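explain this:
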Amino acid sequence: MGGNNQQAVCFLNPPGLRYVQVVHGINVANEFRRHVHGGFCFGIVQKGVRVINRGGTSTEIPEEGLFVINPGESHACKSLCGDHSYVTVCVEAENMKAIASQISEKACASPYFKDVLLHDLELSSEIRRFFSLVEMKSSVLETESLLLSFLSTLILRHGNGAPAPFRMGSQDAAIKRACEFMRMNYARDLSLKQLSREACLSPFYFQRLFIENTGVSPHDYLVQFRIKKARALLLEGHGIAGVALDTGFADQSHFTRSFKRVTGVTPGGYIRAIQPGFLANGVDAAPETLYEKIRR
């Protein structure tokens, strides 16, 4: 992307999300003539201004602007002046219909969005973060969870005739089952769909109730448990690369980022700070002593 303004259009297919394709347009200047999509397209302009003509009306999408195209809608796209860059997330219509049905816990029609341009800073931030996760090849659970949050919030806030959320109890036993399943299978690449099946809940309500019951998302719960296991292995003298794979991280880079986010230090920094006598009170007590040492 540098400073050479070279035009490129990249297509990304997130693992585990067969119903989604991400399109990244970089310095795109050419016009896309009138066409239709079979699914929904949700996007954000990263640079410049995108002009979308739908139904004879042109709408300018400014930088950081969020746009929506419904399936089957004839439209044309172009850059207002020079080139522009954008990210579009394309989602199959049946999946959007399924999410609307999960929200109401009954069969629903596919949602419809009457406005091309949406003014929603929170959703703009979420779609940027989703693209970042796809680029970094983050876990299925993390990308799937964020996408569901984005799409369900989009439907509830901006969909015409949005479904009324079903009132559901706390489902403590179901959430406990899912937590136990994660603790028993922490090294696997788990998905939101797997966890929700274990809890016998829809993905939408599983994620919502999990946060209400535990205070964290399923992904954060799993990462924190993995880091707890990783600390124990590091204290036993296992190498960082091996610990990363043994605790379910895709590679050492992902492991290091997650370890630092949870503990405040890198795995290497954690190992270097360990000295004889730190384990007197057991593995769980060691990190507090470690942090005190590092702060001094």
Remarks:
- The chain has three domains: 8-158, 172-215, 227-295.
